[in-house]
Structure formats: structure tokens, C-alpha cells
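Q: what does this look like with s-citryldethia Coenzyme A bound?
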Amino acid sequence: MTTKYELKNTQTGKATLLDAMSGTIGPDVINIAPLLKEQGVFTFDPGFMATASTESKITYIDGDAGLLLYRGYPVEQLAEKSTFLEVANLLVYGTLPTKPQLDAFCSSITRHTMINEQLLRFFQGFHHNAHPMAKVAAVVASMAAFYHDSTDINDPRHREIFAHRIIAKLPTIAAAAYKHSLGQPFVYPRNDLRYCTNMLNMFFAVPCEPYAIDPIAAEALDLLFILHADHEQNASTSTVRLAGSTGANPYAAISAGVSALWGPAHGGANEAVLDMLEGIGSAANIDAFLARVKDKHANVRLMGFGHRVYKNFDPRAKIIRGMCYRVLEKLGRTESPLFELALRLEEIALKDEYFVSRKLYPNVDFYSGIIYSALGIPRSMFTVMFAIARTAGWVAHWQEMVSDPHMRIGRPRQLYTGPVKRDYVPIDGR
Ligand code: SDX
């Protein structure tokens, strides 16, 4: 029996019955399509606070319970038992791969890690201190210039090749952006190295001496990538879907996602958290800083705190906080003043009525930068790391949307409050 909702114009008495639709878990949605035709009205929901933009089978979040499922699997279990490429395969294909399937996937990814030599030349055009996210967004978009002949988005094989290429090449592009900022030579990917190990080698190896890859660093990166791989219809994923809904080149759609992720309200928060902690300096300054956060005129936010969906702990933040202890200890970093400061800041904020009343908890970005820093990754590269991981989710959502025969171009409406129709006035009459 379908639940129906009645919407009634209390002035005219005209009522419209709207069908509810149920998912496998989570809130029902109301199909509002009849509203415009029957009532002549739009719904209004800036920021999409209570609007489902699509149906999806990929990721589910319960913000009150602090639950995050990738294709039904709790992120805690995947963090403990899986690898990033296995999670990427799960997100894209929908089920946990068999060993032959995973081996084939990893082998394909490995063989797509090189980028066209012409693409490497793009980096020479950037200023040496250009923000890495600007470089990565630009070069990912430029991939559309190299692969415009193999992206018939209606061809499942073309879609699969795109998925493997972009997941494989993001670390190579990221490493090239980093090496360019250092003025160091680009280090090519190696087919004998696993995904995260390969990336660390491209980041930190130099031609003049052997580079010993730290397995702890590779393991920590792999876990961080699992935790950042997907997150429902977040701003950057919604951007990829909207760009992709026009039939745009998929590399251009992913580049749009990279750009959206860059904002400090989204993936750029991990970089902003470290800037914030450095600005606070010591625990003695926490109270004064939080006073500024609570002063609306100061326009200061506790970066890495709060979330549109989580009104409880972000499960990823809990895992990353635990990782900080393990990684820092394994790396012999007994001293980490910024980590100590972050822990103290969290402890004080979670007892403060301002944050408690607004259900503001640490999110995925609050602690991730502590680990990236411990691995020697510079702050300006933190959001690039997020983009590498989230590419798996972006690809999965793009595939889900483009392979849907009922896909329609996304085109929201608006509440217009501008001038009514008026006639042009010649300049000498103004
Ligand atoms: C990510 O969507 C996703 O899933 C994103 C993500 C993913 O994996 O894709 O999880 C990744 O982007 C995590 C979020 C990273 N961003 C930050 O850490 C930046 C700091 N946080 C925020 O600016 C904010 O919390 C958002 C953007 C994350 C959520 O904003 P909302 O849901 O629009 O909430 P809001 O801005 O309307 O805030 C509600 C209230 C306001 O106060 P009042 O007007 O009610 O008095 O809470 C306050 C806000 O001022 N508030 C904060 C705050 N976040 C919200 N006050 C101080 N510090 C903060 N961080």
C-alpha cells in the first residue's frame, strides 16, 4: 500500500495527493512532480537540506546513528579488512570482487597509471606555487582533450575504460603537481608497486638516490583513501552528476567535482584545519578561539567540525583519530603538538553548549591532516589526497547515472524575486 501525502492550498481548497516512495533503508521520499502541473508551484529547498536529488544504490549514511555503508558494507569493516582498490571496485561494480576479479581490476589500474607525455607539459605552464588543486582540476579537465575519441558514454566498455583510467591516473597527476611545486623531476609510476606505494614513490623519490618506501605510510594512506572514497550526494558528487547529466565528457565532469571539492566548506576543510590549529598555537588559546567562533560577527568556524548529515560522530573521524595514535607511534613521532592540540580542542568543544546544541562533531577532515603531515605530505596537497580517494565515488555515481536509461539533464527551478518586466531606458534618459 503506497503512502500518500496530501498538499492542500488552504485558500482555494485544492488538494494534491503525492505518492511516497520507500528505499531499502532510510527516510521515504515524496514524489513532488505533480505539484507544478496540479498546483502551479515549485518546492523551495536552498542547499538541498531536505531534497533527494536522485535514487542511488551506492552509499548510505544515517547521520543520527553515525552509520556509513558502501554498497551495504559498514565503513568500519572495510577499513579493517579491505583495501582502497577493492573498495573502489566495490563502489563501481556493486559487489565485493572475487580474487580473479580483483586481480584483473588491480592489473588494469596498474597499466593505466601513466599519463600522456603531452599532459605532463601542461604543468610547465603553471606558476610554481599554484595551488595543487588548481593544477589537478585543470589537468583532469585536459584529459577530455586526449580521450574524446573513446568516451561514447552509452558504450559500457567505454565507460569502464574511463573508470579505470581516471582512478589509475589521479595519483600520477597529483604527484606531477607536487613535483612541479618542488621544481623536482617527475617520477614515473612503476608497475611493480601497489597503488599507494606507487603514489608515495612518485611523490618522494628523486633520481639521485634510492627511495625506501615506508609500508606504514602506504598502509595509512590506503586506509585514509577507503574512508574518503564516497559519501552519498555530497557537493562534489552532486557536481559530477549535474555536469555528467548533460552528456559532457566524463573527464570534464570529474574535473568539475575536483573544483567543487576544493572549497573549505567541503574537502578543502582538511587543509583549513591545520591552518586553524597553527593559528590557535597552544591549548591556552583555545577558549579565546572558541569565543570568536561563537561570535557571529567574527565569521570564524571551527574547521573540521559540523556536517550537513552527521548530527553525531562522523564514523570516519573516529577511525582516523584512532589511526593518528597508531601512525604517529609507528613513525616514532612521540611528539605531535598539533595532534595534542586537536584532541584538546575536540574535548573542550564537545562540552560546549554552542556545539552540543547544534550537534557539531568532528568530521572526516578534523584529524586527517595530522596523518598526512606525519607522512610528509604538505598541507596544500591534503585536498588533492581527498580528490584521489573520492574519484572512486565520483566514478561510481557517474556510471550509475549515465547507465540509467531514464537519466535526465539536471535543471533546478527557482523562486524569482527580481524586477518585473520593464522597458529599456536609453542612457540619456536615466
Ligand atoms: C566534508 O556532504 C558531505 O558528505 C561532505 C563530506 C564528504 O565526505 O563528502 O563529509 C566532506 O565536506 C566534511 C565537512 C568539512 N567542512 C568543514 O569542516 C567546514 C566547517 N563546517 C561547516 O562550515 C559546516 O558544518 C558544514 C558546511 C559542514 C555544514 O554546514 P550546514 O549543514 O549548512 O550547517 P549550517 O552552516 O547551516 O550550520 C548550522 C549552525 C549554524 O549556526 P546557527 O546559524 O544555527 O546559529 O551550526 C553552525 C552554523 O553557524 N556551524 C558551525 C560550524 N558548522 C556549523 N559553527 C562553528 N563551526 C562550525 N564548523
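The beta strands are 4-8, 15-21, 29-30, 59-62, 67-70, 73-74. The CA atoms of residues 294 and 327 lie 33 Å apart.
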